[in-house]
């Protein structure tokens, strides 16, 4: 850092400030420091910086699955915004397993992170105890409620399930099914299934909740369609726990000669990139994954700046129903 400072004609403390908060130095000075860093190939020693500050500039993020595209937007926007302020994101997957999440939290805490970001409100007792005693902000993402551990950014999955049901019921569908994958582990998907079933019951319809123990795929969806039709041959509409299953249901309907949406209306969840380009295009629930990442970054940067928690600890990012050809 001293070499960079000497080459750039600034003090080491200015270089340190630039590395921690690039916007805190003038554009001209920052550009000069950046040029020297590039020319010298300087890589900041985050371990040394962490020892000096008793806190690393790493934010640990735990997602339930690397297979799930939902979280990519969130992590991408979070990483982009934090990097602008000198923080790096370290991401790991717990694969919907409580013990794996506990081990990851223990590993992250051993590095004295600036913050921890976890997915959802459900954690093992030991994990909750660790998070309660953590000397850094803790954000629970992709879920919304009144009593987060510390901070939360997300939306109500029960309400998302209810919205999917209302969408189908308003189109005259009364015999419905909710098709999910790994819902014995994916508690947010099960919340959507519960909200869906509650709304259908209130509307006087019938509902089947069908779960497959394997991860979501076109093959899994084909099996779910067969299971649902075996239980209730007159099903008029289905909601799926994600758009990957929704795509698989479209494939299986085409194979079976089931007209969509004439015989069967379909609504997915996630609004993945392909959803608007299927045939017919897939109706879905769109959560704002990028907004979730942006709001997490906003909360954390405020905590880092002031050392205090913001007044609003639980941010509801909401969702929208996207109506397309499949319903």
From TrEMBL:
GO MF, one example: transcription cis-regulatory region binding
Assigned keywords, A-Z: DNA-binding, Transcription, Transcription regulation
One Pfam entry name: LacI
Domain of life of the organism encoding this protein: Bacteria
Keyword Transcription regulation on entry: yes
PROSITE patterns (UniProt xref): HTH_LACI_2
UniProt cross-references to Gene3D superfamilies, sorted A to Z: 3.40.50.2300, lambda repressor-like DNA-binding domains
UniProt xrefs under InterPro entries: HTH_LacI, LacI/GalR-like_sensor, Lambda_DNA-bd_dom_sf, Peripla_BP_I
Ranges of residues in domain HTH lacI-type: 1-53
Protein name: LacI family DNA-binding transcriptional regulator
Organism (species): Jiella flava
